[in-house]
Amino acid sequence: MIRYRGNGRATVFLEGEIDRTTVPAVGAALATCLANRMTEIDVDLAAVGFCDASGLNVFLEVSQHLAASEGELRLHRPAPVVSRLLDLTGTGFLLAEENSGVEQPPAETTQPSSGAA
Length: 117
Known about the structure:
Helix content: 25-40%
Radius of gyration: 13 Å
Largest sheet: 4 strands, mixed
Number of helices: 3
Number of strands: 4
Strand content: 25-35%
Shape: globular
Mean pLDDT: 88
Order of helices and strands: EEHEHEH
């Protein structure tokens, strides 16, 4: 699900596993944010139990795209296994600061994400 928050910000809530079979849907959700001119994208990973290199690559690609226009992609609340992937690959810079917080998913879906659900 994607929640647009105004001022060019969006939060993408993902769940399940992010791997080569689900990464096209994750990429599509992030591409929707870019198409809607979001410059700050927060990705809530609280409900994601696994992420492989293909998922990490999507996050890196979107992060680089946003950085070119002074935007930013931030990952929030990763499971320990996802945090370990970020640590091992030196991509911890994608993590949001702990105190920056991210909205909780709303009771109703504002737009279904087709990603890792």
